[in-house]
Amino acid sequence: MNDQILKPGDRDYVGALASGLDVLQAFDAEHRRMTLSEVATCTKMDRAKARRLLLTLHALGFVKRNGRQFELTPRVLELGYAYQASNQYRIVIQQQLEAITEELGESSSLAVLDADDVVYVVRSAARHRLMAITLSVGTRLPAAYTSMGRVLLAQLSEADVGAFFERVKLEAFTAFSITNPAALKQEIDRVRKNGYAIVDQELDSGLRSVAVPVFARSGELLGAINISTNAARVDMARLADVYLPRLQEAAAAVSKMAH
Questions:
Q1: I need a labelling partner for 65 at 20 to 30 A (CA). Which of 52, 140, 173, 259 fits?
Q2: Count of Cβ atoms closer than 10 Å to residue 151 Cβ
Q3: Which DSSP symbol is given to 96?
Q4: Which residues pair with 212 in a beta bridge?
Q5: pLDDT in tens, 170-216
């Protein structure tokens, strides 16, 4: 098999599987339980198709129903566990992140790039909450406005970075958000040169973070790790002089142990 990504309509593309996954992903923190009509609306499917998919997922044990409402079952976790179990470095990374949280009192995470978002894969959460949304394993955030996202974008080829800018529409989440493509491209180039990224309140007011890439000893990119904090509590100097070296130390420790 080659590395070409299939598109809807290609001979080997299984539309029913894609639609079934769309139904599973329609459930989230704001949509824990939904009726058939709500699922159809969220997935932009007709009711008949959404009904068949829901009933199939119900038969497989991934969805349960209570009257007119459907919700996910714990069996969905098996899908995520398969990914976690296949990541042999997860335990090592988790230990490093927890050590950072214990030492600095800040949240620390590992994320990977998935399309135009970062997905949290490992996380050590501090007691204080930084964002309006709850960050946890599986959370997706726009790569353009996160320190981990910019670190991961900086690992891409120039062609892939160019394709990213062709796809993504930049938007202002806060007054600090970079919305000019040329300016963001310059920032990604700077991250590539420096080996780290600092993002100051571009995704959420008051949220400040620093991130570095993490590699296995073989050179394989494992993801990016970050420390996130409150801008009112930690200034940029401390982020660069204390938090960044601690992250780099953790990344080096992971690389040493990840063969």
A1: 140
A2: 30
A3: H
A4: 225
A5: 999 999 999 999 999 999 999 999 999 999 999 998 899 999 999 98
Type of residue at 191: V
- d(CA 164, CA 152) in angstroms, rounded, equals 12
E-strand spans in the chain? 33-35, 63-66, 69-72, 107-114, 117-124, 140-142, 197-200, 207-215, 221-230
Are 203 and 145 in contact, with CB atoms under 8 Å apart?
A: yes
- Greater model confidence, 4 or 30: 30
Q: Are 158 and 53 in contact (CB under 8 A)?
A: no
54 contacts 70 by C-beta, under 8 angstroms: yes
| DSSP alpha helix (H) spans, 6-65 | 15-26, 36-43, 47-60
Residue type, 205: S
Among residues 148, 106, 139, 99, the alpha carbon closest in space to that of 91 is found at: 99
Q: Give the closest residue to 208 by CA, choosing from 130, 143, 141.
A: 130
Q: Which residues pair with 111 in a beta bridge?
A: 120, 224
Query: Which tokens in the block code for residue 215?
Result: 């590699």
